[in-house]
Amino acid sequence: MVMYDIVPIGVVKSPYLTKEQAPSQGRNKDSEEMVIEIFEEYQKGLGDYREVSHLIVLLWFDQAKRDLLFAKPPYSDQEKPVFTTRSPNRPNPVGFDIGRIISVDSGKIMIAGLDAIDNTPVIDIKPYIPSLDCIPGATEGKSKKSGKN
Fold it and tell me: Distance between CA atoms of 90 and 82, rounded to whole angstroms?
């Protein structure tokens, strides 16, 4: 098996200190502000994001369990295969959040809408582009029990 290096570009400074404090989805707490601190060697890669309202933030959930192939989503009473869920516990615990930019200054991005706990490594950021990232007509699996996914 070929191994690849993932190098964090920064870290999240979050009010959530434990996994239990963090929401299951960041959008559920869109008013909660936190800071992404980009490491100095990567700060030249930041822009001012004047025309961008949201970022895709890829995180490394370093406290996740990596040996689980089944997870019980909050909307279900049954375990499901991990790759059909958004569980942070998975072989490669990559987190995907879309956060609302509040400000960008001196290598720090003030952002809202993430579910990261304090000191979560950031592995990449990308601008959220609605014309590319929103797929009209896309479907999602819904539980017949709750109607939520």
Answer: 7
CA atoms of 76 and 45, how far apart (whole Å): 41
> According to the model, what pLDDT value does residue 3 have?
80
Domain boundaries, given as residue ranges, for the chain: 10-129
User: How far is it, in rounded angstroms, from Cα 23 to Cα 12?
Assistant: 15
Neighbours of 84 (CB within 10 A): 11
Pair 125, 58: CB distance under 8 Å = yes
Q: Global pTM?
A: 0.84
pLDDT of residue 1: 79
Highest CATH level, class, for 10-129: mainly beta
- Position 145 scores a pLDDT of 45
Name beta bridge partners: 59: 95, 122
Which residue in the block uniquely carries the two structure tokens 């990261």?
116
